[in-house]
Amino acid sequence: MNYGERLRELMNQKGRTVEDLSLGSGVPSGIIYQLLRDRSTDVKFWIAARLAHQLSETLACWADCDGIEEMTLPPPPDSISLSKREREARIREAVPIGDLIRRERKKRRMQLRALADASKLSYSTLSKIESGVIQAPKLNDVIKIANALKLCVDSFERAKGVTPGTQLPPKKSKDNQKRGPIATPYYDKNSNLRYKSAK
After folding, report:
1. Domain contains 181
2. What CATH number is attached to the domain comprising 8?
């Protein structure tokens, strides 16, 4: 079963439409339609968490999807039944997922390399997630990290972008990338076109 099939099954059980789900979760309806159509085994963690939250499920609802690592710890029983005040408090204290992972790793006195080996993720990927270069990791990567830290995946619910109302991870755009100096064209004495790099 892929994400789209599982999502369709949950939506039918709860009697929810795409527009209704989109409004409540803050996930654009285009992304939900794409998930429903797609055969992909990759989904961003914040999207999976928001959809599960909106469908009154825990992240364990995705456990039987293709390509998902086995979740070694069951979800906490009280993760769904949050009062409005508790939800607002979580929104206020939301932090980047990389910071949450770093805190948990340091609590356990683990080196980054040891966590990378335990989670079976590359050192580079894990380092990018922790430092915030990858601000919207895949659900599967977060499950691997949670299993390696012996945590429930729902422990990362306080991450920015996960709970509806928190800031979404930024979209990748060309404006975010650093651009090098722009070369200025000029003609030399022999009328040949040359480029002078800006400093």
Report:
1. no
2. 1.10.260.40
Reported as a single tens digit per residue, the pLDDT across 56-98 is 887 777 777 776 766 665 454 444 455 666 666 666 667 788 8
User: Looking at the domain assignment, is residue 184 inside a domain?
Assistant: no
| Termini Cα distance of the chain | 55
Range of the domain at 125: 3-173
- 98, part of any domain: yes
**Taking a C-beta distance cutoff of 8 angstroms, is the pair 120, 126 a contact?**
no
**Above pLDDT 70, what percent of the chain?**
71
Number of domains making up the chain: 1
Task: Give Cα separations from 85 to 48, 81, 92 (angstroms).
Answer: 23, 12, 11
HEC-encoded secondary structure of the chain: CCHHHHHHHHHHHHCCCHHHHHHHHCCCHHHHHHHHHCCCCCCEHHHHHHHHHHCCCCHHHHCCCCCCCCCCCCCCCCCCCCCHHHHHHHHHCCECHHHHHHHHHHHCCCCHHHHHHHHCCCHHHHHHHHHCCCCCCEHHHHHHHHHHCCCCHHHHHHECCCCECECCCCCCCHHHCCCCCCEEEEECCCCCEEEEECC
Q: Is residue 180 part of a domain?
A: no
Alpha-carbon span 30 to 180, nearest angstrom? 34
CA 108 – CA 112 distance, rounded (Å): 11
